[in-house]
Design goal:
Strands 1, 2, 3, 4, 5 and 6 form a six-stranded mixed beta sheet that branches. The protein has three domains: about 10-115, no CATH class; about 155-170 and about 315-390 and about 395-465, 2-Layer Sandwich (Nucleotidyltransferase, domain 5); about 180-280, no CATH class. About 50% of the residues lie in helices and about 10% in strands. By secondary structure, it is an alpha/beta fold.
């Protein structure tokens, strides 16, 4: 259950500061807390709790604030709790009424925070943070347009620029090899057989586990492996797995049951066996929804075509940049064609801004016939070369092409900043929902840092303005 906060902390002056310490209202965490609409978020967060029974959940400000702190510094769960305990500014940020030298919550609660604040909720919170900023920018642009001449009103109705690109957020898994995956699959099947036999006092069937282990080590210890040797080793492991699955199926037919986790694991192992058997018999290396990690079966290989990492293993995401702020347009662990996201991203831009963008800056993969005809119909200029073979008399605006390429780099800078500073480079969480939460949280934290920095720069510019001295009567 969830209980709304009646005494919501509004400003830094409502925080009971420790004796002898005067907290700076210009601190970055104070600025970040002021730029987040906590009351609106709490109303939406409270709607997730339908039951009035059970323990009272932590406030949304504490949950979201702790996750933002973790994304900002890339702390472990235990270190996040220790940092909040030691820092009064962080305690103010998470909504504590006063400074206390004690843990605000247990480190294991961070997992529950990531489960409750899903990627969809964080994307909505990101919109709530950016909405007042973009509304203010739209008002200033409207005032500037009102002061222009009437001759400028005949221009295009579309306004602004939408930058779109895709990337992959790699998960922390071991590089998958077929022999290692099959050996791990065999060992886990043998563990399931042992659990069934020990729980029901049954004699263990013959599994040839020592022989299977020896066959795996013979191929794993070789520095150079030929294709014939790898294929032979895979065939042996498949035979051992087929034998183990037969034993487990016989136990299940006799009425013996498995726990929920063991049943889910058995389904993953069975699917892995079927995929490897199909590739082995068909002599191919491609299969749909290929499993590359038994502990995280939702991860898929994402072909990126980069020189350093041609294939990455993690979630694929599309990110758009508008007025310097990033948004997640699509995120999925399954590989997809990013050109499908352009129309959806443009329509979302129309919902936010009220008009379509004047230009869309994207890669060549976005320039298919569907997207080109869609942009042409709405008067949107989609950057990039035309389809097909270049014409002999084709005129290319070099200046416009150079400007588009320079402006499109902004989304690459966003990817670089999110991966280098906010944890998008390597996702260390183990569950699908928590991994998506970390990815969405990295984009939110990056925007929040830009918002607080923009507020600080605005204050500096205001302080540097010349002051008009009042006239003194002689």
């Amino acid at each position: 259950m969830y209980k709304k906060q009646t005494n919501r902390q509004l400003t830094i002056y409502d925080f009971d500061q420790p004796l002898g310490l005067t907290m700076n209202p210009e601190n970055r965490w104070v600025k970040k807390a002021d730029s987040i609409p906590w009351s609106v978020i709490e109303d939406k967060y409270a709607a997730l709790f339908n039951s009035d029974r059970g323990n009272i959940a932590k406030p949304v400000r504490m949950a979201l604030g702790a996750l933002i702190i973790q994304s900002e510094f890339q702390y472990a769960d235990t270190e996040v709790v220790n940092q909040i305990r030691e820092n009064p500014y962080l305690q103010y940020f998470v909504g504590l009424p006063s400074y206390k030298d004690e843990k605000p919550f247990d480190a294991s609660s961070m997992v529950h925070f990531r489960k409750r604040l899903s990627s969809e909720i964080l994307i909505e919170i990101n919109e709530l943070i950016l909405k007042p900023i973009e509304d203010g920018a739209d008002d200033s642009q409207t005032d500037d347009n009102d002061n222009d001449d009437d001759n400028d009103a005949s221009g295009s109705e579309n306004e602004g620029t939408l930058i779109l690109d895709a990337t992959c957020a790699p998960s922390e898994i071991k590089f998958p090899q077929d022999t290692e995956l099959l050996n791990e699959c065999r060992e886990k099947l043998e563990g399931i057989i042992d659990v069934i036999c020990e729980a029901n006092h049954l004699p263990k069937p013959r599994t040839y586990r020592k022989m299977a282990r020896r066959d795996y080590l013979n191929i794993a210890r070789k520095k150079k492996k030929s294709g014939k040797q790898i294929r032979k080793a895979i065939g042996k492991q498949l035979n051992y797995i087929r034998r183990d699955l037969g034993y487990i199926d016989a136990f299940l037919e006799q009425g013996y049951t498995l726990g929920t986790k063991q049943a889910d694991l058995l389904g993953t192992l069975r699917k892995l066996y079927e995929q490897q058997l199909y590739m082995h018999t068909s002599r191919t290396h491609k299969v749909q929804d290929r499993i590359v990690s038994i502990s995280q079966p939702f991860i898929r290989p994402i072909v990126r075509g980069k020189a350093k990492n041609p294939v990455e293993f993690g979630a694929k995401l599309d990110m758009s940049i508008t007025n310097g702020y990033a948004r997640l347009e699509k995120i999925s662990f399954d590989a997809y064609n990013e050109s499908e996201c352009l129309i959806v991203a443009v329509e979302r831009y129309k919902e936010r801004m009220g008009v379509y963008p004047e230009r869309v800056l994207a890669d060549k993969i976005y320039r298919n016939r569907t997207n080109l005809s869609y942009c042409k119909e709405l008067g949107i200029r989609l950057s990039g070369p035309s389809l097909g073979r270049p014409k002999k008399d084709q005129k290319i605006d070099k200046k416009q092409e150079y400007t588009d390429n320079c402006d499109r780099v902004e989304v690459e800078r966003g990817f670089s900043l999110a991966k280098r500073k906010f944890g998008l480079r390597l996702i260390r969480t183990r569950l699908e929902e928590t991994s998506l939460c970390v990815i969405a949280l990295s984009i939110l934290t990056m925007n929040l840092s830009k918002v607080s920095l923009r507020i600080f720069l605005t204050l500096i510019q205001w302080m540097s303005l010349p002051r008009i001295e009042p006239l003194v009567n002689p």
